Amino acid sequence: MNTLARLMLEHSAEMLMLVEPSTLQIVLASARVASALGYPPEKLTGMPITDIESALQDVFYWEDVKNGICQEVQQQEDQYRCASGEMLTVSKSIRRVAHEGSSLLLVRATLTQDVRQVQDELAHALSRLRATLESTGNGILVIDWRGQVNSMNRQFSKMWALPEALLQTQDDQRILEFIAESVQEADLLRNRLKAIVDPQETTDTLRHNDGRVFEFSSRPQYLDEQIIGRVFSVQDITQRTLDAQALRESHDQLEARVQSRTADLHALNKVLLAEKERLAVLVKELEAAQGQLMQSERMASIGQLAAGVAHEINNPVGFVNSNLGSLQTYVDGMLRLLSAYQQVEADLPQALRDQIAAVKKEVDFEFMRDDITALVSESLDGLKRVTRIVQDLKNFSHVGESEHQWADLEAGLESTLRVVWNELKYKAEVVKEFAGMPQVWCYPFQLNQVFMNLLVNASQALRDKGKISVRTGFDESQVWVEVQDSGQGIAPEHLPRIFDPFFTTKPVGKGTGLGLSLSYDIVKKHGGRIEVNSVLGKGTTFTVFLPRSAPEGAPAGP
Ligand SMILES: Nc1ncnc2c1ncn2[C@@H]1O[C@H](COP(=O)(O)OP(=O)(O)OP(=O)(O)O)[C@@H](O)[C@H]1O
Ligand SMILES: [Mg+2]
C-alpha cells in the first residue's frame, strides 16, 4: 500500500477492516478501529474478526463465510467488543472485494453513538433556533445567496400580512415583490432584498402602506469566510415613532409655554420696574411736598408770631403815644407857666430868689427847659418808628388774611424789605425802582415770602458788599418784580437744579434748599412764573411774573 492510501486510511472517520474469508483474520485495519475499540494497532492485524464481532448471529455469519457462503451486509446495526470488554453499537456494511485473484471482505463500521449524538445535537440546535426565531418580537427573513427564501418566522409573515395563498405558492420572487410593494420605499427595499452578498449591515426606516413604521435591518450570513445568505430583521416602531413625535410636540409646546411665560415675566418685570420708578418719583415728590409744607408752616408761624407781637406792642404803643401827646401839651403849658413865674421873680425878696436860684442850679433848669421839649419830641419820633415797624410786621404777615385779595405788591415789598433789613443793611446798597404797579389778586403773605426768599438769597450771594436792586414793572397783562444782585452768580451746572427741593450749595445749617422750590410753587399757584438770569461772578436776576387778571368770580379790582 502506498503512503497516500495509508494516509487516507489513517484519517478515515469510518472503521475499515479487510478480512480474509478462509481464516476470518483481519488483514488490514484503519487507525479508527484501534482508536474506537481500544486495541493496540499492531494486535489488530491477524486478529480474528469474531473477537470484535462476537455476538451469536455474527459467529454464525462468519462461520458461513468460512464455509464459502458469503452474503453482503448493508447498514446493519451490530455490537462490537472493545479491548476492555465493553460493547459498542455500530452501523456496519460488509462487501466482498477482489484482491489479486482472491477475494477479501471489506467491513465498514461507524459508531452509531457518535452519529446519534451529532444528530441529537443538531436537532436540539435546530429546535432552539426555531424557538428563538418564533419567540422574538422581530420579523425575521433569511434569504440564501441564490436569492431564495431560506426561512421566515411567523412574526414576519404576520407583520407583512402575507396572504396564505401566496405563501402556499412558494414562489419566492412573488413573495419578495409583495413585500417590496407593501412599503412606500419600494425601490429601496427591492434593492436591499437583492443585495444578499453585500458585506455591509444596513438599517432603514420603512413606512408601510397601512401607516405603520418599520425599522428594517439586514446583515450578511457567513459560513467561514463565505457569505451564504442574508438575515433581514423587521421591528414595528410605529408606537415608538408616535411616542417620539408626541414627545417632540409636547417638548415644543412646553418650550413655547416657557417662552410665553418668560415673555410675560419680562413684561411684568418691566411694569414693576416702571411702577418702582414711579413710586420713587412719588416718594421724592412727597418728601419735597413735606419739606415745603414744613417750610411754609414755619413761615406761617413766624408770621403769626410777628403779627402777635405787633398786636401786643400796638396797644401799649397806642396809649404811650397818646400819653406822650398829652405830655407834650402839658410840658408846653408848664413851660409857659414857668416863664410867667420867671417874669415876676425879680419882685420876690432876695432870700426867696436865692432859694429859687439854688434849686434851679441844682436841677440844671436851663438845660432841662431846653431838653425837655427835645426829649418829648424825640420820644414821639421813636414811637412813630415803633408804630411803623409794627405796621410793617402786620403788613408782612397778613395774618388772618388767608383769602385771596387785591393787594399792593410794592407796599408788600417795602414791608418785606424792612423786615429783612437787618440781614441786608451791612452788606448791600439797596436800590428801589418801583413803577407804581397796579394791585394784584393774590395771597399777599405768600408773595411776601417769595420776595423775602429772593432778597435773602441775593444778600447771601454778596461776598462782602454789593448792590441789590428791587424793580417792579407791568404791562396790560402782567406785573413783575425783579430782584437783582451783584453777587457770585450761579454755576451753569447748578442752574437747572436751583428750584429742586433740598438743592443747596450753602453750608449745612445755613440753607435747607427749600426757599426757591417753595417760591416756585407759590408763584405757580398764582398762575405766574419765575425767570432767572445769572452770570457767574457778576450777579443774578430773579424776575417774578404774575398775571394781572383775576379769575372769574373775584371782586373787581381797585
Ligand atoms: N441770588 C443768588 N445768587 C447765587 N446763587 C443763588 C441765588 N439764589 C439762589 N441761589 C442758589 O440756589 C440754591 C437754592 O436756593 P434756595 O433758596 O432754594 O435754597 P438755599 O438758599 O440754599 O436754602 P434756604 O433758602 O432753604 O435757606 C442756593 O443754595 C444757591 O446755590
Ligand atoms: Mg434761599
Short note summarizing the structure:
This protein has 558 residues and is α+β, with helices and mostly antiparallel strands.
CATH architecture of the domain at 403-547: 2-Layer Sandwich
Q: Ligands in the structure?
A: adenosine-5'-triphosphate, magnesium ion
Helix content estimate: 40-55%
Distance between the termini: 166 Å
User: Shape, please?
Assistant: rod-shaped
* Overall average pLDDT: 90
SS elements, strand count:
17
- Counting DSSP H or I runs of 4 or more residues, the number of helices is 17
Give structural notes.
With 558 residues, the protein is of the alpha+beta class. Among the domains are: 115 residues, 2-Layer Sandwich (Beta-Lactamase); 101 residues, PAS domain (Beta-Lactamase), CATH 3.30.450; 145 residues, Heat Shock Protein 90 (2-Layer Sandwich). The protein is built from 17 helices and 17 strands. The strands form 4 sheets. A 5-stranded antiparallel beta sheet has the order 2-1-5-4-3. It has a 5-stranded antiparallel beta sheet with strand order 7-6-10-9-8, sandwiched between helices. Strand 14 and strand 15 form a beta hairpin. The protein is rod-shaped. The mean pLDDT is 90. The structure holds adenosine-5'-triphosphate and magnesium ion. The site of magnesium ion has 5 residues, from helix 16.
What attributes characterize this protein structure?
alpha+beta, Beta-Lactamase, Heat Shock Protein 90, binds adenosine-5'-triphosphate
SSE topology:
Blueprint: H1 3-11, E1 15-20, E2 25-29, H2 31-37, H3 41-44, H4 49-52, H5 56-66, E3 73-81, E4 87-99, E5 102-111, H6 112-135, E6 139-144, E7 149-152, H7 154-159, H8 164-169, H9 172-181, H10 186-194, E8 202-207, E9 213-223, E10 226-236, H11 238-344, H12 350-363, H13 365-397, E11 405-407, H14 409-419, H15 421-424, E12 428-433, E13 440-442, H16 444-461, E14 466-474, E15 478-485, H17 515-525, E16 529-535, E17 539-547
Helix pairs in contact: 9-10, 11-13, 13-14, 14-16, 16-17
